[in-house]
Design a protein that fits this description.
The complex is a heterodimer of chains A (235) and B (219). Chain A is mostly helical and 235 residues long. Helix content of chain A is 74%, strand content 2%. Chain B is globular. The chains are: A mainly alpha (235), B mainly alpha (219).
Chain lengths: 235, 219
């Protein structure tokens, strides 16, 4: 209960602060954000765009970890955990794509421009889609768990190419691309202390939210399976 | 050595029906003629040619390489294979067969491309050759392990390109760039980073395939 009220306060504060705090040239008060050249008011979406993209990768990582666990122990609960992580992952992946392309429309002039990071989030979306397609194609539970675990691991080892290598070798519009003169993410260089504070608060808040939703998700999957097994003999 | 005999078995059953080879050749011809019809009399630039080259390679691989394990499931011979050979031997045999199929397919595609496309002139041949070898190796290995998953998932044919595309995407993007480099005649030194990515991809895919194949193969 304490955690839930803490999370509620944190996310409420982040949403209000992230949207309403003013952006000024020379920030003095604790609630003022600095002006970043070329971004202006657009900069505020960073509080919601970056956490979703971060959670997309975290969800995929957790799905892979529980896939490895499943392959070692053959416990179907691990498969439920992996499945629940991936379900949330695809939601956050869609959110990251949407917020990213809205931001891209106002910062770079078009919804989609095949920037390397846009390509990599698109590839992640394809991986998630393919994973769910594979799961729906297999009926038998153990077989489905094994095959999807193997595919999750194979797909996950290609993710470093998308997340870390491609955006850095290809020229693009995101900070941190090969031709970027700022030489790094905006977080360290252009944000002031309170903007960074709210950014990291938002990151923490969304991560806690994710773990909460994930626990609810896998518990409900496990309970559904148990109920299903219990009902069967009475038929 | 046992994997060599497995390859020989696949080779003989392929020679008997010639299913994969015939459908691959027809697929390549159809795909390239569709591209040629849609281009018409336009002259397309080099980067588009390099991209289209890898489009044809990807879809041809998808139509030909998926048979590796599905044929075993269809004929009901996978149980026998499980009894007589270890999983890694089976995988090696299938990978050897697919590597040879991919190389044959891509030699045909490359020859047709150089004959039919004006811009497809390879100016740095050693770079092209190196990319050809390591790129095809990665393509064959990834296609084989996905084919194994598909075969166990009840041989759903449409699922194969869907599952393979995200896995092959890093390889295809980098290889298309390398092909563009060799068309432009770029120096070897400029392409070292891209070559390293493709080589890393091969090593990662080969090791992951051998580690994970046991789980797919044993029911």
């Amino acid at each position: 209960m304490i955690w839930k009220s803490f999370l509620f306060l944190l996310l409420a504060f982040v949403s209000v602060a992230g949207i309403t705090f003013p952006i000024v040239e020379k920030p003095n008060a604790w609630y003022e954000f600095p002006l970043i050249n070329g971004l202006g008011e657009n900069a505020k979406i960073i509080f919601f765009h970056v956490p979703t993209a971060w959670l997309t990768v975290i969800a995929f990582l957790m799905s892979t970890i529980y896939s490895i666990k499943y392959l070692r122990k053959k416990n179907l609960d691990d498969d439920a955990k992996s499945y629940s992580a991936a379900q949330l992952g695809i939601i956050f992946c869609i959110l990251a794509t949407v917020t990213g392309s809205v931001w891209s429309k106002f910062a770079w002039g078009s919804f989609w421009s095949w920037d390397p990071r846009q390509s990599s989030i698109f590839a992640l979306l394809l991986i998630y889609g393919a994973w769910f397609a594979l799961r729906s194609a297999v009926e038998q539970e153990e077989k489905r768990a094994t095959l999807s675990a193997v595919y999750a691991i194979i797909a996950f080892i290609t993710v470093p190419f998308f997340i870390f290598i491609m955006p850095r070798i290809m020229t693009g519009l995101h900070p941190g691309s090969a031709d970027d003169t700022n030489a790094g993410p905006v977080v360290d260089f252009k944000m002031n202390v309170n903007m960074q504070l709210i950014f990291y608060m938002s990151l923490t808040g969304f991560t806690i939210l994710y773990f909460w939703m994930w626990r609810l998700g896998y518990k409900s999957i496990i309970l559904t399976t148990k109920l299903f097994i219990r009902e069967k003999p009475s038929e | 050595m046992k994997s060599y005999y497995l390859f020989i078995k696949d080779y003989h059953s392929e020679i008997r029906t010639r299913y994969a080879v015939n459908s691959l050749i027809m697929f390549i011809i159809v795909a390239i003629s569709v591209i040629l019809f849609s281009i018409g009399n336009e002259r397309i630039p080099g980067n588009l040619t390099a991209g289209l080259y890898w489009v044809v390679i990807f879809f041809s691989a998808m139509s030909g390489l998926g048979r590796a394990f599905i044929s075993e499931e269809e004929r009901g011979t996978s149980m026998t294979l499980q009894l007589i050979a270890s999983p890694s031997t089976v995988l090696s045999g299938k990978i050897i067969f697919n590597i040879i199929l991919v190389f044959a397919m891509n030699i045909v595609i490359t020859l047709l491309y150089s004959a039919l496309f004006d811009e497809f002139v390879i100016r740095n041949f050693s770079l092209f050759l190196l990319n050809f070898i390591i790129g095809n190796l990665g393509l064959a290995v990834s296609a084989t392990i996905i084919a194994a998953i598909i075969a166990k998932a009840g041989s759903k044919g449409t699922l194969y390109p869907v599952l393979s595309f995200p896995i092959l995407l890093p390889l295809i993007l980098t290889s298309a760039k390398l092909t563009l480099f060799s068309i432009e005649g770029a120096a070897f030194g400029d392409a070292v980073f891209e070559l390293a990515i493709v080589a890393c991809y091969d090593v990662i895919m080969i090791s992951a395939s051998y580690m994970l194949f046991d789980f797919i193969w044993k029911d």
